[in-house]
From TrEMBL:
Positions of the FMN-binding domain: 86-170
Designated gene of the protein: rnfG
Cofactor: FMN
Keyword annotations from UniProtKB, A to Z: Cell membrane, Electron transport, Flavoprotein, FMN, Membrane, Phosphoprotein, Translocase, Transmembrane, Transmembrane helix, Transport
GO function terms (MF aspect): electron transfer activity; FMN binding
Organism from which the protein derives: Thermosediminibacter oceani (strain ATCC BAA-1034 / DSM 16646 / JW/IW-1228P)
Protein name per Swiss-Prot or TrEMBL: Ion-translocating oxidoreductase complex subunit G
Subunit structure: The complex is composed of six subunits: RnfA, RnfB, RnfC, RnfD, RnfE and RnfG.
EC number of the protein: 7.-.-.-
Purpose of the protein: Part of a membrane-bound complex that couples electron transfer with translocation of ions across the membrane.
Localisation per UniProt entry: Cell membrane
Membership in a protein family: Belongs to the RnfG family.
Topology class, membrane: Single-pass membrane protein
InterPro entries the record matches: FMN-bd, Ion_transpt_RnfG/RsxG
PANTHER family, sorted: ION-TRANSLOCATING OXIDOREDUCTASE COMPLEX SUBUNIT G
């Protein structure tokens, strides 16, 4: 057998084996990855709507909402995902909203690629806790009613803008004082 033909056959066999190993490992790990993603989603919903034990998923006008319920089935708030633009790319966050009060109940950063030590501090409670109890009618302007992080103004502004933009749509679907 020609040396080149043998090399091509060996490379083909290694390529097929590598593809099979990758496909097998994907099939084995994907259920666990999906299970972990579901657990992370539930944890973030429970984090932004305190006091809930379960939630119902609702689709409205192209958005997904998670209505938080307590043990007795009382509605405690709504959670929804929002995205803002940060320095390192999109900032995905889970926002808790109480339509009865017209206030935010919590904020959790789900994913971001901000600068470690600066913009990445937006996921710390020192930053996210300032949004709890904030009215949906607040302007969400950095350095005015939203505290920024020294040395990182783009990331906090991205979070504030992402929340404000989403709230404009969410409050039309679930107006303040309305039923949900």
């Amino acid at each position: 057998m020609n040396q080149y033909v043998r090399m091509i056959v060996v490379l083909f066999i290694f390529s097929v084996l590598s593809g099979a190993v990758l496909a097998f490992s994907y099939e084995v790990t994907i259920p666990k990855i999906q299970e972990q993603a579901q657990k992370d989603l539930e944890a973030s919903i429970k984090n932004v709507i305190p006091g809930i034990t379960r939630y119902e998923q609702v689709e409205k006008e192209g958005m997904t909402f998670y209505i938080g319920l307590d043990d007795q089935g009382n509605k405690k708030g709504i959670a929804f995902k929002s995205t803002g633009q940060g320095f390192g790319g999109p900032i995905e966050m889970m926002v808790g909203y109480d339509p009865k009060e017209g206030k935010l109940t919590g904020l959790q950063i789900l994913s971001m690629a901000e600068t470690p030590g600066l913009g990445a501090r937006i996921q710390e409670p020192a930053f996210t806790d300032q949004f709890k109890g904030k009215s949906v009618n607040d302007p969400f302007v950095p350095k005015e009613d939203v505290q920024v992080i020294t040395g990182a103004t783009i990331s906090p502004a991205g979070v504030a803008n992402g929340i404000k933009t989403a709230l404009e749509k969410v409050t039309k679907i679930y107006p303040v004082g309305g039923d949900y």
